[in-house]
Each structure stands twice: as C-alpha cells, then as structure tokens.
C-alpha cells in the first residue's frame, strides 16, 4: 500500500514538473533530431536591414538622364569633332561628376575612343569605387584629349568585356557620341554599313543583356541617329538627343 501511494505521489510530482516545463518545450521544435529554441526576446527587426534596402540601386544623373544601378560603364567619343566643338570637355565633366558620387559598393569603367581605344582600368577589369580608384579614374578622364577617327566597334567590345566581368547586379552602359563611324571608311554608305555592323556586334556580344543608354550630341547625321536609337532600344535602354 505504501508503495502504491509513493508511486501515485511520485507520478503526480512528475506530471506537475512536466506541466511546469511545457511552455519551454512548446517553444522548441525538433529539426533533424536537434531541438531549436525560439528566441522570443529579439526585436522584430533583429535580423537587420532588409534585402530590398541593401540592394537598392544608386542613382546618378548623366547629361540630364537618370541612371540607376551599381555598375556604371561609359563609352565616350573623343573624335576631333567632339573636341573642336567643346563637347568632349562637357562629357568629361559629366563622367567626373558621376565618379565622384559613387559609393564604395559601385563598380565602374570608362572607355574613350577615336581611331583607337583608351580604357580605365587599363587591365580591362572593372574598378571598385574605392577612394583611390575613383581618383585614378578621374585623373584618367581629365587626361583625355581629342583625336581623329571614330572607331566605336572596338570601344563597345572593350566596355562590354569589362562590364561582363563585373559582379554588380544592376549594370548600365552609356554610349555618348556624335553618331559617327568614320573608321577606315571612304563614303557615307561605308560609314552607314560600319555603324550597322557595330549595332549587330554589340547586340550579339551583350549576352548578359546589360542596359545600354545612348546620348547623341552635336550634328548627328541621319545614319548616326539610325544607329544610336536602335543601339539603345535593342539593349533595353533609352536614346537621348542633345543639341550641341
């Protein structure tokens, strides 16, 4: 009888003990044999900034056009026409302004073209916008002077190669030119054919579908505009006409 009474009392004690522990047990879940306890004392925002806020693109303005992204790549015509009419200096100031505004999470690159191509970084790799790289990029931009020729095909190939290597999630390319394609051509018909070939090559090489915005300046020819407009529209960008 005493044994049964002890067992009964012991069972009651165990039942009360389990009941007292039950709130904690209910806060744990078994996952793969391990118990994971919920921490109900953490504030609702304890995990930090949301992914959407972290990934918000940066916004810069270039020739009055808003660009949104975290990878910015520029192709700038530095032909003698651009230089002689003062447009090259304007373009350089716009690029410098953008580089100065970049945060350290941006990647960028710049290509100037005439009959040849000059690029920053010279390695062809995208630059991280650290203070040192930004200053180097600004120095490069300011050092460029006008020269003869307008060979945009090589310039677009160089900037696409650079942008394709970038780890940025939102890449933007800007192509600024007076629309010329006077690269080893002898007639207007040959120039138009050169520009159409450049359009086809750019579209085929842009396998990441990076947005390309185009800005036409100065005395754009019909052939030049017929190149600049579809270069933007077929690559998800916008075309802007700026009168010189």
Plain-language structure description:
The structure is a single chain. The chain is 43% helix and 22% strand. The chain has eight helices and eleven strands. Strands 5, 6, 7, 8, 9, 10 and 11 form a seven-stranded mixed sheet that branches. It has a two-stranded antiparallel ribbon with strand order 1-2. Strands 3-4 form a two-stranded antiparallel sheet. Helix 4 (87-101) packs antiparallel against helix 5. The chain is globular, with a radius of gyration of 30 Å. The protein starts with a helix and ends with a strand. Mean pLDDT is 84; it is low at 1-9, 12-40 and 42-46.
Please provide the ordered H/E string of secondary-structure elements: HEEHEEEHHEEEHHEHEHE
Mean of all residue-level pLDDT scores:
84
Classify the fold: give the CATH topology of the largest domain.
Answer: Rossmann fold
Global shape:
globular
Quick summary:
Residues 1-9, 12-40 and 42-46 have low confidence and may be disordered. It contains 8 helices and 11 strands. The chain is globular.
Outline the fold blueprint:
Layout: H1 2-26, E1 28-31, E2 34-37, H2 51-54, E3 58-62, E4 65-69, E5 71-77, H3 80-84, H4 87-101, E6 107-113, E7 117-120, E8 127-128, H5 131-143, H6 152-165, E9 171-177, H7 188-205, E10 211-216, H8 222-233, E11 239-241
Parallel strand pairs: 5-6, 5-9, 9-10, 10-11
Antiparallel strand pairs: 1-2, 3-4, 6-7, 6-8
Helix pairs in contact: 4-5, 6-7, 7-8
List keywords for this structure.
244 residues; alpha/beta; Rossmann fold; 2 domains; seven-stranded mixed sheet; two-stranded antiparallel ribbon; 8 helices; 43% helix; disordered N terminus
